[in-house]
Amino acid sequence: QVQLVESGGGLVQPGGSLRLSCAASGFTFSSSAMSWYRQAPGKERELVAIITTLSGSTNYADSVKGRFTISRDNAKNTVYLQMNSLKPEDTALYYCYTKKWGIGYWGQGTQVTVSS
User: Is 90 in contact with 84 (CB distance < 8 Å)?
Assistant: First the structure.
């Protein structure tokens, strides 16, 4: 049974930092690409960052390039999203995502609120 459990969200002031974590289980984590998505109120869910498997190459939405960093620890079956220089427009529910056997799996999400 695939499970993705996010943590690390919270309230932070503009310019601050947060690190999100996603603990994965129920599948071979090291051979799975992992992604972070976010959804702000009234907006569609959007891809924030993705990290591949063997090479660990990454890709980011233009809106977060240079501020966010996705990484993974295959020994801990965990993917991270380091978020720096946060802006109010980064406020959203952040989700972890993977696709296995043709099926997409989502975590429950963790709320990030950037406000003074």
Answer: no
Strands (E) located in the chain:
3-7, 10-12, 18-25, 34-39, 46-51, 58-60, 68-73, 78-83, 92-100, 103-106, 110-114
**Is residue 115 over pLDDT 90?**
yes
User: Tokens at residue 81, please?
Assistant: 């999203």
Q: Phi first, then psi: give them for residue 90, nearest 5 degrees.
A: -85, -5
Looking at the predicted structure, is the pLDDT value of residue 101 above 90?
Answer: no
DSSP classification of residue 73: E
Cβ–Cβ under 8 Å, residues 51 and 72: yes
What Rg, from alpha-carbon coordinates, does the chain have?
13
At 99, the amino acid letter reads: K
pLDDT class of 43 with cuts at 50, 70, 90: very high
Inform me whether the pLDDT recorded for 27 exceeds 80.
yes
